[in-house]
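Convert to structure. Protein one:
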Amino acid sequence: VRSCAVSNGSCEQDCVQLSPAHYQLRSPCADRNGGCMHTCKNDGWRAQCNCLPGYTLAQDGKNCEDIDECETGQAACAHGCHNTQGSFTCVCNPAYELGADGRKCYRIEMEIVNGCETANGGCSQKCQQSTLGPVCSCHHGYHLDDDLRTCVDLDECEAGSSCCEQDCTNYPGGYECYCGAGYRLNSDGCGCDDVDECLVDNGGCDHTCQNTAGSFQCYCRLGHRLDEDRLSCIPLEGAVEALEWSSRIAVERPLPQITLLRDYFQQLELCLNNTFGHDCSLTCDDCSNGGVCDMEEGHCDCPDGWTGVVCNQTCPKGTFGRNCSFSCKCKNGATCDPVSGHCRCPPGVSGDMCQDGCPKGLYGKLCNKKCNCANNGRCHRTYGACLCDPGLYGRFCHLMCPKWAYGPGCSEECQCVQQNTLECHRRHGSWVPCDHVTGECLRQCPPGFHGDNCDL
């Protein structure tokens, strides 16, 4: 009997009755695509699911999942890749276009005009081409004007951006520091160091010379007083009739107000008419820099940062504060404020205690700019100005000190015996040749002389 009703027509799966006398097998993919998401294939009367290109069969054997060709590397795009459902799209970098194969990228040929080649792009100094056209910039010491093309001089002295401690003179593209009378420029080209006038001919003083900040002062020995020229000392006459180291002191009448002092030998000394000092030449009017007169003790009480009988001397180097009793903790050759102890860092150095600085030959905020100084010299950390080593000078530290000078900034004069040297000094009439760094006299003695100073 040919009927699906009998033993399912001997069909393994579905049996379809076509007529009372005929029947046929039914494909497993005919019913709901065999359960497949994409395509179904009758494989031995079993449904075999397959996926379209760009997809892969899921673990359930029916559903299809997208393949990310960009992730797997199947796309093989030259530049960039963008995945899509069942596919992908290659993309190119700017100034490139996609080739016919959809994968390779080719540069777009176009004419690029360099605007800096014509009249320097309208810039007065430096010009650099960009995608938006010429961009102007300026050399060190200049800044760009409002028109963004013209460079005008930056007056560091007026702007307060110079490193000068005292006087500053601006010039196109830079500036130079100067010092007032009684000071000389430090080797860093910025600071000003006090000149000790007492080292040369005793400052012109007859007796004692005492150096002060930017100046000096003469003092006289006991029994003398300063003359009007403040240099000469003249004897005291008629001030005291007799002086007896007993219970009795005879003086001129009437008895003036006096101040009692003790000298270095603990002898009792007498100053008249509200004067004090070892030569009785000082009065309360001589107290300077905020000092308060103390007639009982015979000196001036000095504020922080000052010392001396009349408060006319700053604290010695390395000290500060009341009575200059505190020690400075500044590093890298920095000086400290004599009042507060605040560190004054040299150019190229920073930090609370001047502990941070660029290595020699570099400058800039990140110490990544190279100094344009000869001999790999150190330069100002911010501005790049050259800071010369002892024995060198000049804008780029490229000049050696003259034969008569040596030391930092060539500020020291050779101390060799002039009359025993061979050559001629431009001012004094005889050369004083010495080592330009240390000041050591060069052994160039004339016949008949020898020794380090040619004085033997």
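Protein two, convert as well:
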Amino acid sequence: MFFVSFISIAIYLTHVAGKSLNPLNESRKGVINSRDINTGVTLPLKATFTPGGTILDVDVTVGGQNFSMYLDTGSSDFYLPRTNFQCLNGTDNSILPQESCLFNKAYTISPTFQQINNQSFGVKYGSGIATGILGYETVTIGGLTVERQQIGVADRITDVGDGNDSGVLGLAYPYLTSAHPGTDYPNDTLSLWSNRIPYDPLFTSLHKQGSVKPFFSLAINRTPVNVSNGDGGLLGLGTVVEVPHKPTFAIAPVQIIGVIPPFFTDNVTAKTYWALSVKSTDINHLVSTNNSFQALVDCGNFFNLVPKDVALSINNAFQPPATPNIDFLETGSSTVSCNATAPSFGMSFSNNVTIYIDPRDMLVENADGTCTSAFVDADVLGESTGIVLHILGTPFLRSVVSIWDFGKDEMRFAERIETSGGADPPPNSSVPVVPSSNGANQGSEIYVTCLLFTVLTLVLVL
């Protein structure tokens, strides 16, 4: 779940995912359409700093009980810890005090919960494992209710929260969900990453019942180190968050990840993660099409994991240059002065629109006052696993308004525009979306977790 200091890849390899919802056939001009705004609901996100990075939480009501849940675009399950759950040591499975798992509260089985027979819940995150039962429950988010939403209720957990949240709300495709056959399903890594019974995640259910259009949007704010329940930004369900941004969007079709083994989707060819292709990179206005790569976009990853040549070029372009960490051969990360001047860096996508990352998002501030480059050498991490996985995490997403469109199986990004004070707009900002300059249409429209998949535990999968 969390991108720990030694680099846990913000990805659950428990994701692998589904088919498009209500495909739409609209113009792809890269300019937002009025159909994307002023509908749906917008929710505030809460940000909490952890040793691994800043986590985003959202408020949800489950069976009449209120929870703050970890928001994850890198997974699909909706799960909560159950009252009297066992918090386990991830190394030897010894029982720990419940507070060691850092969940704010646990879910009590309610009168509206209906258990699903002959199925088990079991998910493997970078931060641990959660196993238990599955059932249907009444879930409400932003005033929108699904009366029979399938959820996981965990009895045995090595996963951890941030002290303020409970469980995970995943926003990826259905094939990443973690229902398994039988009531005594094995909890080893290979079993948890295979033999799935896909079900509709919460957002899919909301769309299918007509509550929202088939896209969601994010605007993630920059938050200070050591913040707890701070202003994390905005989540729009079926709407584009009202945060100032440039009028033109970069467009990236969602792709199937080539490095994921077939057994993750039971040999079915299906979309799982929010994955895309970066067409070219621009470092200090030197454009290279040789550095194209496929990547996941994950709000639960605290770094950008990029190809070796891209990471090296960016880190050398800091003034003064970033230097490899002492554990570089394990983490691929580099230290940089917090006062360094960051290079200009942009990425272009399928419609040739380049998105530039804000200089403030080019480095990550640590709790001890030091800073780390936001760009990690993914090839170094892949050397120990044989699988190289690229990820665009929160350092990228803070610079943009992002739209994640199940209806068109595409993602869209527009650079954010600062308000007059230079700070991010508040959650209740009434500043309208910057209108299109040419009126062209676009169409509809994405946790360690966005949950992480620890590179060191990737074994042979991912």
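The domain at 40-208 is CATH 2.40.70.10 (Cathepsin D, subunit A; domain 1). The first helix runs from residue 189 to 192.
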